[in-house]
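From the pipeline queue, job 12 of 40. The input is one protein chain; the requested action is below.

Action: predict structure.
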Amino acid sequence: MRAAEYPKIGIITPSFNQGCYIRETIDSVLEQQYPNLEYWVIDGGSTDNTVEILKSYGPAINWTSEKDDGQADALNRGLKRVTAEIVAFVNSDDLYLPGALSLVGRHFGLHPDTMWLTGDHYIIDHRGRHIQSFVVSYKRILRRRPSFRTLAVANYIVQPSTFWRRELMDEIGFFDASLRYCFDYDFWLRAILKHSPYVASVPLSLFRIHGASKGGSRFVEQFAEEYRTLSRHTTNKILRGLHRLHGMLIVLAYRIIKG
């Protein structure tokens, strides 16, 4: 594919007081050197050095900094601004791996029937060291046969490794801003009821877990909201029971890991 044939990809980074990580995140997007990129950072009015960092990039990025109603609200604001055909979001402490956007753009350009794509990942800690390789392997196995039923039991979709066409939001809507932890899981459930995702076997992102991240400090609340989210989409007692059991086992595993 020639550079002009790559579809425009719009990336959104929601941010709030992540000055210690956001430069690394922004660099991981810009260093993709994707030929048709639209990048927005939607900051929630940070009080640390985030705004100074954003200003330092000049015209290389688009950004706003104003109070919002949480992460999902920030993302929806970004999605309403972005004009790209393919969209995604990477949080202000996560990273794209080199070549990720080229792989994604090439696939969407060559396969107009693909409505959304999800790929593999690695998990890193606050220092960038790879951790929880067993979680990565487990989710990789679950992604082999994506369906509503399997996704109802366990959320194996990797958020920063997932991209979709704007038309998908015309079908299923935007993120639910009433959800704090699982607005992406709710979105994946709505999406998979309409279209099966293309699963890329290669890692596209680095998902960071640290003391201040939701996945690192609020996993009990996260799984509780995840169960309530699933209950919106199915009354199947077996699926809901398996999901609850799976969540309990994951919480137990996290508690063992954290000592």
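Job complete. Residues 237-258 form the longest helix (22 residues).
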